């Protein structure tokens, strides 16, 4: 019913009448199209002798399907098997020769006989689905005749898979020499056309892969792909020459995909070329519908998607009309290439429109060669248009290149002047650098001397202060305690400075050795549990890699943990909690030190690993903080080739996460 409605629409558009074609019953030396009335017997595969003695058959028009034909008072429908036959006379005025019969697609398997001689078959016709093997293909069969011969063509046809069955298109009879010559010529022309389309498509695709901004290239590739799929699966179906074992399902899906894509692909391409004249949302909607239709065609069997194909044909005609009107608007607007493209587009549109009418059995005499030439003409114009765009782009590039040469020459002169000035400045800079390097060495030497000279008196002051502890009371004892604390802080800062200087030297080498991770972990656990207990802090430690040995610098790793754990305990208040976790995973030591102390502000996070930084948080029990601990940690982590990350929210504690390769 749907097919009939769309057929009526095409009839109104083409202003064609539905009258039957006059039967031709004699071959008189010219190509004979065997359309018009054929005889059909359903439910039997008849021989030539059976036909001569036949009393019951029905008339059926070819080209058409057998779906709506009545047999024994009921419509046949799409599925079943039967025998088509038609007789023609080879004129007595002609000489004995060989004839060929051209057989386009038949739904969905057939065997062809001339009188009592079987010429060949496509697929395997059968009396049920199990005994039949479906296939579609274009074939030419040859047989001999003598003057006055009566030739009866007998088709055994079966269909159990498609939504329309029967002899879809009218066979053609002609001299073998002429038909073979025409076939080879048409085949060569089509292969040349397909080759040109393929070369153009691959060329534009390569441009798109190199320059993703040139989207019209990928749209041109889609246009070529959709047209190629249509040419491969229509008429003499070159796809079967290239891939002889292609199933009918694949052939039909490729054809239906081309129908779903051809209109929207052209719309996307033309919109990219003439952006102002094609509405973006309309074209985007076409693309979405094309994607949905393509997925539907790919997923479901052809017998389910077949009823929607007439609607896609009508939809493509609407798209084509919209594109043509917009192209005329672009031409009137003086858009480059629009006038040039109108003729080629119109040729392709009309040829495809006629092909659609032919596929719906409205104009059975239509030659697919017209479609091939219309498409080829349109694509040649597209390629010429793109070539012109490239030429204009090259011309613009050449003008820009000349301008750049002029600018470059001016820049070279400017650079030469600046280079001369820079050379003079370079001498000054080298001198300043030498002086700066000398000053840095003197600073380092002075720091080393000061550190060495301060360390001894500070140790002496600390020793005297400790001796005086038992003899002093009251305010004197408090002052002595302050002296001792300042001395300890000063000596600690000197030791940290000396240590950091050692680690920052370029020639410092990491000494990696094999050690027990569980023993190493246990040492740190015991040491810092005691410190935490004295301060009233809960110390939790977890090791997820027991009885494992690792290779790393244990001293450096120990120094890292000492700084992190002592910092965590230093800034965690009484009653707080410190979590220490060690895990071995994928040759990496993952260490986490987490506390619920004051945490870090956003401003603190920017400078937490820098030297001598005074952060917002303060030790909770009056401990000293010189601002070097985390700087040492960062330096040591880098020496081991690891990473350290900080997660912290002000007022809610902090978490240091280390990843050390071992």
**Main pleated-sheet profile:** 7 strands, mixed
Strand content: 15-25%
What number is the mean pLDDT? Answer: 82
Q: How many beta-strand runs? A: 20
Number of helices: 16
Query: How would the global form be characterised?
Result: elongated
The parts where pLDDT drops under 50 for at least 5 residues are: 1-24
Helix content: 40-55%
- Rg computed from alpha carbons, rounded to a whole number of angstroms: 45 Å
Class computed from helices, strands and strand pairing: alpha+beta
Q: How far is the first residue's CA from the last residue's CA?
A: 76 Å
Write the layout of secondary structure elements.
Blueprint: H1 2-14, E1 26-27, E2 32-33, E3 36-42, H2 48-52, E4 58-62, E5 70-71, E6 74-75, E7 80-90, E8 97-103, E9 109-114, E10 117-122, E11 139-145, E12 150-159, E13 172-175, H3 176-210, H4 215-233, H5 238-242, H6 248-273, H7 280-299, H8 302-305, H9 309-332, H10 338-359, H11 368-468, H12 475-504, E14 513-516, H13 517-535, E15 538-543, E16 549-552, H14 554-571, E17 577-585, E18 588-595, H15 602-607, H16 629-639, E19 643-648, E20 654-661
Parallel strand pairs: 1-7, 15-17
Antiparallel strand pairs: 2-13, 3-4, 3-7, 5-6, 7-12, 8-11, 8-13, 9-10, 9-12, 14-16, 17-18, 18-20, 19-20
Helix pairs in contact: 3-4, 3-11, 4-6, 6-7, 6-9, 9-10, 10-11, 11-12, 12-16, 13-14, 14-16
């Amino acid at each position: 019913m749907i097919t009939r409605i769309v057929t009526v629409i095409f009839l109104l558009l083409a202003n064609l009448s539905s009258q039957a074609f006059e039967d031709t019953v004699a071959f008189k030396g010219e190509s004979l199209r065997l359309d018009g009335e054929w005889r059909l017997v359903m439910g039997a595969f008849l021989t030539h002798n059976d036909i001569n003695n036949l009393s019951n058959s029905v008339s059926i028009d070819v080209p058409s399907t057998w779906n709506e034909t009545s047999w024994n008072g009921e419509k046949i429908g799409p599925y079943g098997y039967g025998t088509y036959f038609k007789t023609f006379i080879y004129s007595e005025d002609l000489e004995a020769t060989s004839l060929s019969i051209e057989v386009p697609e038949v739904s969905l398997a057939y065997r062809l006989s001339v009188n009592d001689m079987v010429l060949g078959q496509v697929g395997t016709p059968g009396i049920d689905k199990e005994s039949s093997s479906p296939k579609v293909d274009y074939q030419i069969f040859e047989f001999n005749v003598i003057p006055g011969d009566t030739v009866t063509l007998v088709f055994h046809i079966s269909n159990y898979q498609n939504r329309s069955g029967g002899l879809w298109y009218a066979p053609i009879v002609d001299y073998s020499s002429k038909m073979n010559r025409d076939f080879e010529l048409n085949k060569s022309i089509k292969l040349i056309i397909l080759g040109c389309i393929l070369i153009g498509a691959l060329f534009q695709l390569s441009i798109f892969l190199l320059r993703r901004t040139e989207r019209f290239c990928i749209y041109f590739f889609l246009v070529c792909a959709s047209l190629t799929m249509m040419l491969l699966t229509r008429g003499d179906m070159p796809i079967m020459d290239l891939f002889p074992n292609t199933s009918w399902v694949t052939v039909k899906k490729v054809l239906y995909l081309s129908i779903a894509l051809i209109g929207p692909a052209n719309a996307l391409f033309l919109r990219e070329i003439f952006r102002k004249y094609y509405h973006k949302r309309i074209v985007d909607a076409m693309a979405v519908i094309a994607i949905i239709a393509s997925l539907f065609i790919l997923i479901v069997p052809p017998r389910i998607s077949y009823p929607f194909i007439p609607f896609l044909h009508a939809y493509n005609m609407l798209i084509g009309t919209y594109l043509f009107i917009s192209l005329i608007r672009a031409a009137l607007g003086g858009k480059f290439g629009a006038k040039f493209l109108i003729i080629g587009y119109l040729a392709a549109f009309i040829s495809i429109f006629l092909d659609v009418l032919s596929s719906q059995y409205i104009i059975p005499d239509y030659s697919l060669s017209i479609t091939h030439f219309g498409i080829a003409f349109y694509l040649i114009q597209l390629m010429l248009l793109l070539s012109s765009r490239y030429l204009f782009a090259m011309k613009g590039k050449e003008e820009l290149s000349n301008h750049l040469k002029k600018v470059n020459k001016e820049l070279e002169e400017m650079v030469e002047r600046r280079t001369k000035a820079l050379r003079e400045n370079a001498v000054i800079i080298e001198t300043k650098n030498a002086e700066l390097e000398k000053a840095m060495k003197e600073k380092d030497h002075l720091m080393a001397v000061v550190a060495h000279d301060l360390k001894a008196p500070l140790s002496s002051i600390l020793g005297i202060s400790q001796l005086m502890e038992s003899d002093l009371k009251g305010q004197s004892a408090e002052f002595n305690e302050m002296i001792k604390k300042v001395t300890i802080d000063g000596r600690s800062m000197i030791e940290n400075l000396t240590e950091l200087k050692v680690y920052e030297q370029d020639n410092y080498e990491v000494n990696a050795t094999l050690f027990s991770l569980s023993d190493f972990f246990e040492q740190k656990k015991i040491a810092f549990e005691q410190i935490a207990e004295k301060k009233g802090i809960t110390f939790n430690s977890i090791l997820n890699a027991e009885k494992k040995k690792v290779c790393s610098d244990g001293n450096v790793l120990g120094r890292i943990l000492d700084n992190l754990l002592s910092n965590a305990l230093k800034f965690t208040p009484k009653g707080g909690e410190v979590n220490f976790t060690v895990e071995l995973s994928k040759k990496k030591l993952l260490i986490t030190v987490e506390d619920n102390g004051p945490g870090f502000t956003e401003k603190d996070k920017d400078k937490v690993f820098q030297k001598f930084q005074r952060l917002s948080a303060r030790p909770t029990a009056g401990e000293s903080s010189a601002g070097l601990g985390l700087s040492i940690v960062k330096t040591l982590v880098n020496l081991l080739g690891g990473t350290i990350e900080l997660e912290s929210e002000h007022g809610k504690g902090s978490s240091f996460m280390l990843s050390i390769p071992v």
